[in-house]
Design a protein that fits this description.
The protein is of the alpha/beta class. It has helices at 2-10, 22-26, 41-75, 101-115, 126-133, 147-153, 188-195, 219-225, 227-235, 254-257, 261-264, 276-285, 327-343, 362-374, 388-399, 410-416, 435-442, 461-468, 470-478; strands at 30-33, 94-97, 122-124, 162-167, 171-174, 183-186, 213-216, 266-270, 292-295, 312-317, 355-359, 379-382, 405-409, 425-428, 451-456, 483-487. The strands form two sheets. The protein has a nine-stranded mixed β-sheet with strand order 3-5-4-6-2-7-8-1-9. Helix 15 links the parallel strand 12 (379-382) and strand 13 (405-409). Helix 3 crosses helix 4 and helix 7 (188-195) crosses helix 9.
């Protein structure tokens, strides 16, 4: 691999950082890469385009070579080799899921740049592709938002799309029918809409029956969209077709006929960080017989240095899990009870006001919201389902001190990134998945006497380490004390 990597680097196709995962991609191992970011995104997309095109072209060459062998044997009336197994049930071999059209647009451009280099191949439907996936010429960056927000949402951020792509000898075809495509590009929502659900009259997932390389790009963003859509799509990969799709069964690979497509499929997961959901996806759904590898940053950086003001930050550990309580009950019901009985009373005095409560899970958000309604508490709410008018009125009332508690979700932060005025205290119901969510709200605390409190437990190690760092996280988890304080300088 050293010589191959050197050649690719000399041609500008691969940067040194890509050489870490390139050997595992080339040997078709399952890969979980947890160091994806905007700095290396273009490099990773180029590497993914190279791997996808290489797989499709090699597969096509094998089929064409065997076609010629069979044709020559038929002309000479020789016995045909019955062991020609080079196809699947259907044509598509590569599936790539992206969160937004703007990322898919970048990938296709990288793919075309590689495939069309030095050739006169034609591109069909390129104008339509630029109109539907390209950026708006009049769109401008929102300078009031963070840089990461601008990089993520600038361009076409529609999350509902599917695209078929076919590579031919003299052309590249976009918007091909799935059954005539080599590569399928989609968002989880768009692909699930095609697959359908139980009981739907129109369902179609046979085109996913022979996927050999499945890639999930920016998987951390899928957590902020709808994780169930992604799981639904993955569960419909490599299933036996529901009807005949014109398959030549004499040339279908034996492991495909035996229903072992899942075990032969390569899965590549790119993410900015890992989480229990992503780890579960990798361990349960990625069952490649060639083995798997996880690649990430050697040093886990914290975000405390991004806090602009000297704010009192309190990390409050939830009471230990009782033996008769399951882990699921502990992180749901037990956390809720502890929050209501031990955390909220600290802020129910008359002096406490303008309190923002950030709740990552929407289910926990609903549970706390219903509690406030039962208690007739002076509160307001902003979630990803709130209307723009409601958000504007709530922000104005909170800034004027008319609201004591403001409930919000991590997904609301992810999609909106609003800055609130007159914030006195911030409560994190649990550590957020995205560490930037923590600094976003802490940096709103500019008044004297303001504070931030984060409730955590032993199952929040991954999320907590992204906020305070690995070493500090170990101290918070292993310490016998339940309350810890950090003051940023």
């Amino acid at each position: 691999w050293a010589s191959t990597t050197k050649q690719l680097q000399s041609k500008g196709i691969m940067k040194p950082s890509s050489s870490t995962i390139y050997p595992y991609m080339a040997t078709y191992n399952d890969i979980l890469f947890t160091d994806s970011n905007f700095e290396n995104q273009a490099e990773l997309l180029k590497l993914l385009a190279l791997h996808s095109a290489n797989h499709v072209i090699k597969t096509r060459k094998t089929v064409l070579k065997n076609n010629a062998r069979l044709a020559r044997a038929a002309e000479k009336d020789e016995a045909v080799d019955l062991d020609v197994r080079d196809q699947g049930f259907t044509r598509p071999k590569v599936l790539i899921l992206f969160p937004f059209r703007n990322v898919a647009h970048k990938f296709v451009h990288q793919l075309l740049k590689l495939v069309l280099s030095g050739s006169k191949k034609q591109i069909s439907n390129q104008k339509r592709f630029e109109e539907e996936y390209g950026p708006d010429s009049e769109e401008k960056s929102n300078m009031t938002k963070s840089l990461s927000y601008q990089k993520l949402f600038l361009g076409n951020n529609d999350d509902f799309f599917t695209l078929g792509l076919a590579l031919a000898k003299n052309s590249v075809k976009l918007y091909t029918d799935f059954y005539n495509s080599d590569i399928i590009i989609a968002s989880p929502l768009g692909l699930r809409n095609v697959i359908g659900g139980e009981g739907d009259k129109e369902r179609d997932y046979d085109f996913l029956s022979s996927i050999e390389v499945a890639t999930f790009f920016m998987t951390d963003v899928f957590l902020m969209q709808n994780w169930e859509h992604l799981l639904h799509c993955v569960q419909h990969l490599n299933l036996k077709p529901t009807q005949d799709r014109g398959t030549d069964f004499s040339r279908v690979k034996m492991w495909v006929l035996d229903g072992l497509g899942r075990q032969a499929r390569q899965n590549i997961i790119f993410s900015a960080w890992t989480s229990p959901e992503i780890s579960s996806l990798f361990s349960r759904e990625c069952t490649n017989y060639r083995g798997s590898v996880q690649v990430g940053a050697l040093v886990q950086e914290n975000v405390l240095s991004s806090i602009l003001y000297p704010v009192r930050q309190v990390f409050l550990r939830q009471s230990d899990k009782p033996d008769d309580v399951t882990p699921t009950e502990y992180i749901t019901k037990h956390r809720y009870n502890y929050f209501v009985q031990n955390v909220l009373p600290r802020y129910q005095t008359e002096d406490a006001s303008s309190i923002v409560i950030v709740i990552p899970s929407f289910f926990d958000y609903v549970r706390v919201r219903n509690y406030f309604k039962r208690e007739s508490t002076n509160f307001a709410q902003m979630s990803e389902y709130s209307s723009n008018r409601s958000i504007t009125n709530t922000r104005r009332a909170f800034a004027q001190g008319e609201i004591k508690y403001l409930l919000t979700t991590e997904r609301f932060f992810f999609f909106k990134r609003y800055t609130l005025k007159n914030v006195q205290h911030v409560l994190f119901y649990e550590a957020p998945l995205n560490a930037e969510c923590y600094t976003h709200y802490v940096n709103m605390l500019q008044e004297e006497g303001s504070s931030c409190t984060l409730l955590y437990n032993q199952f929040d190690v991954l999320k907590l380490s992204r906020i305070v760092g690995v070493d500090q996280c170990k101290q918070l988890i292993n310490s016998k004390q339940t309350t810890h304080m950090i003051i940023s300088q």
